Every structure is written in structure tokens, then in C-alpha cells.
Amino acid sequence: MSDLASIVDIYNGNDWQQKAESLLSIKYGEDFQRVPDEHKGDWGIEGYTMSGFAFQCYAPNKLYSTQDLYEHQRSKITDDIRKFKENSEHLGKLIRPNRFSRWIFLTTIHTSKFLNQHASNKATELRNSYNHVTEDFQILVHEGQNYFLEEIPRFQRLNPKTLRLQEPAPDAEELRTLLQTDSVAYQTLLRKLRAGGVRAQSIADGAERYIKDYSSGRSILEELKKSSPEIREMLDKRIRSLEKDIENKYASGINLNFNEVNLDVQRFKDDVRGYAGAFLDANAIDYIARGTISDWLIRCPMDF
Predict the structure, then answer these.
(1) What's the whole-model pTM score?
(2) Cβ distance 185 to 273 under 8 Å?
(3) Percent helix, strand, coil in the chain (nearest 5)?
């Protein structure tokens, strides 16, 4: 994909906490309880279930290196587990007669196995030493878009106003640059259109159309990033998977022509419709499909 962005640069901590609490309510129903921190401070969790799961949320508000992200997340877990220990008596009263078996760190991005190691070490400090946790107590790290895989589409259907995609507005300067006849994108498309059997008089128009489709697709994806970053992240992962299928297909030596490319567009739309049709309308899916196919043509996952 072309600069597909992660949801890491979308949320601040409060936004992610509010979204996560809504998703936890969908996932666990009335069993989920919020733990407000306005009255006498933070007890190291933002919610829990009576079945014994405690939750804490964290979203980095900028793009960190892997090391810096690990250090921020490590510090967050350390600080909140300290509170979780210090307030063991209060927390025990919340859940009794049950105890906590899991403390789950819900974040928007997880990139270091050493964070898992740190979580395991912290769990060991509590296990068998505090009465509000079980003997098999664990601290787990989960990315929200994976933990809420089923709940995010349900949330979107319940809150359709949060997903408002505008008609694509491509970046005018980028489009002007791409349409220069000596640009790499334009020349790549000319080569493929010629080799793919397109009539000579249609080649220039075809190159222009694919470049415009590419820019429109990028614009729609940017709108989706603003409206529903989790849906964008899920769709990005699906597109990356489809790209691998496309690369394998054309690496096998298939005799590509542009009738086949049009079939690829339709297959792509059918796939995305099945995957995201509950919250993306037909126009958005069409723009995304055509833009992605054009991106693959320009960058050469589709080559012959």
C-alpha cells in the first residue's frame, strides 16, 4: 500500500479510553463496569468484569520508534500496576466474592515482545501476594483492533454518524505531479497498457484514468482514517493480504491483459463488500477498489 497509516496517530488517550469503554460494553454487556477516577483518584484500572477481567487503556498520541513506544508503554504498565497493588483492598471490594484473573492492557499498537515480558514479570509480583487476584493471575497486552474484531463493526452499525465519508478530493499538487508525462507512475502505466493489449489511441487516457483512480482511492482512505480508524486499520490489513495474493498471481507468469485487470477490480470489490459492506457504501468500496488496483499497477505488485 501507499503510506497506509496506523491508527496510532489518530487517538489521544481520552479518545481511545472512551471508544474502548464503549466496545467493552458491547463485548461484555452488563458484566462490564467502568471505574471512574474523578472521585479520590485512579485505582489502576478503567473498567472490569465480574468474571475477573480488569482493563487499562493506552494510546500513544504520536508515532514513536519501537524502543520509545516500548518505554512509554512499559512505564504506563508499571505505574498502573503500582496503583492496582496500592488499592488492592478497594479493588477486592469491587469484585468480591470473585477475584481478578486478568489485567488487560488495551493499546492501539503493540510492537515489542519485551512488553509482554515486562507484563509477565509484573504479574508474578502480584500472584500469591495480593488477595484481590487469583493464583493464575496474568497481565496481557492486546491491540484494540484485534481484541474487538467482532465488536468494532457492531459499534459502527450502532453509531453510523461516526462514519461519514466525503466524495474523494485528491491532493491537487500530487495529482498534477503524477500526471506529468515523464513521471514514473505515468511511464509505468504506459508500459503496462501497451503490453496489456490496450489500443494505442486509448493508452494516454487509460494512464490518466488509473492515476486519477489512485488519487481518489487515497483520498477515501484518508477520510476513513478520520471517521473510523479501527475500520481503516482492519481494511488496511485485508488489502495487504489481497496484495500478496495479487503478487503471487502475477509472479506465476500469467499473461495479463486489461480485461483481467477489470476482473481483478470486480473481485476486489466483492471481497471488500463481504468484509466491510456493513459500514462502507458501494461508492466508497468502488473508489477504494479502483484506487488500490491502480496503486498495485503503479508500484508493480501487478506486473507482467
Answers:
(1) 0.58
(2) no
(3) 60, 10, 30
